[in-house]
Write a structure and sequence with these properties.
108 residues; 69% helix; mainly alpha
Length: 108
């Protein structure tokens, strides 16, 4: 449990409305008070400060940072997967004779 000064310092370091949705998901996993979580879920950016304060009561600062890093990594991985699928779809829609890597058949 953090004392007031430590919690205030951690709050200032971690305060970011962009991370509110990630913090809310971590709070849902750690907290049993679903009424507050439902309230926060209506507009996570609006309640970002409340979410972070509640989360700091339950989790360590390092755990919050680690969870945010994992969420960012997951988003990047998902984005790369979508780009790979799009590239394959585009490549498959181009006729063979128009592809740069196409080798014409050898006629004997």
């Amino acid at each position: 449990m953090l004392n007031f000064k430590q919690k205030n310092k951690a709050f200032r370091e971690l305060n970011s409305p962009e991370a509110a949705a990630t913090n809310l998901q971590q709070l849902r996993d750690a907290c049993f008070d679903t009424k507050k979580c439902d309230l926060y879920a209506r507009n996570p950016k609006r309640y970002a400060n409340d979410i972070l304060n509640h989360l700091l009561d339950l989790k360590k600062q390092s755990e919050i940072v680690l969870n945010r890093c994992k969420a960012i990594q997951k988003k990047e991985d998902d984005k790369k997967a979508v780009e790979n699928v799009e590239t394959r779809c585009i490549a498959s829609s181009i006729p063979d004779h128009r592809r740069k890597d196409h080798q014409p058949p050898i006629r004997s």
